[in-house]
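FAQ: What does a ligand-bound record look like?

Like this one, built around adenosine-5'-triphosphate:
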Amino acid sequence: MNLRQDPHAPPPFATLRLDAISRWFGRVPALRELTIEVARGEFVALLGPSGCGKSTTLACLAGLQPLTSGTIWRDEERIDTLPAERRGFGMVFQNYALFPHLTVQRNVEFGLAMRRAGRAERQAKAREALRTVRLEEHGGKRPAQLSGGQQQRVAIARALAFEPQIVLMDEPLSNLDAGLRVDLRAEIKRLHESLGLTTVYVTHDQSEALSLATKIVVMKDGCAEQVGPPEELYRAPSSAYVARFMGYRNTVQGTVRSVTADGVLVDFGGQSVLGTFMSPGAPAPGRRVVVALHPEDLVPGGAAPRPVQDSAAPGAPAGRVDASVEVIEYHGRTTQVVARTADGTALRVQTDRPLHRGEPVHLYIRADRALVYSDDGDAGELDALAEQVA
Ligand SMILES: Nc1ncnc2c1ncn2[C@@H]1O[C@H](COP(=O)(O)OP(=O)(O)OP(=O)(O)O)[C@@H](O)[C@H]1O
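The answer part, i.e. the structure of the complex:
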């Protein structure tokens, strides 16, 4: 956008900092001393299951809810004491929150009217914002005459019209069907980059977080479980919980058999598999652990297995699990398979190899791709998470 700078806009900032913020609802702690830093230009995704505190974080940041304790800073300026309208954030919600009786153009102007912009300025900025989201042809329509994706773009235009430095988005794509979600996701990324925005984005969808964010905050019970760039969280999740959110759909319990120079040998699925221990401290034989495996890292070798080194990193010994193909879901180029081991462990496998129901299959795993965590007794919780994590 190329709009005149709002004279009331706050000066450019370097860092937004949520410092040990807590929010209690009666006796329920929704946020517990959560600290997050957002640098200017970052796209930060708050990722986690329902109830972990994502929306509350955003509401506290926006000034829609008070903090129970903690502070929020824009550089040296404390902003948690400011009312919402003086924090200068643009907000986009899941349900669009458009006025049905106003035209698209007037809906976008509304936010500017709240900020006491004059009529001509309002109209020009709203038109410009609609152009930015590629809806300039639709200004005269009412929201009901637009598709869900278009309505959400109007909501984004409304948030962008007053050129906020920081845009807060709470599950903006979750009411859209799959195709529109992917299109609008690309649009949000384009806007973030081309307008030089700073974005804080709430989602429970790992693919959204991975594709959009420059930094992901995985939240659990009102705290940040791990914070980092998507590649880092994907490569080295700090717990089985984070691994789940990074697409490691298999989190199976096992027992440490031995510890070697190459890694930790774990018994699970009726076999021993070599993996990499990721938790703090050292594993000891007999210790209960959780092994996290990405479906793509379970490579079917068929009845006549390929040599182990085919599926192993140079020098790294591979593990093998034997299972039987139970469920096959065809997804075009790849197939999602549920394979079951002799001891009843279900493993999710993603492969481009044709497999058949009932077929015995050897699944090869690179040692550096079998991530081993100490078992914190939350295996049941992880299974419940599986229901939520795509
Ligand atoms: N207005 C409220 N009154 C009482 N409890 C609340 C209120 N809002 C949130 N909570 C509680 O605070 C916790 C965090 O809720 P929050 O909505 O922030 O989670 P979330 O991660 O955004 O979940 P979802 O993805 O389902 O929106 C939950 O235990 C929730 O029940």
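Follow-up question: can I read anything off the structure? Yes, for example: The chain has a mean pLDDT of 87.
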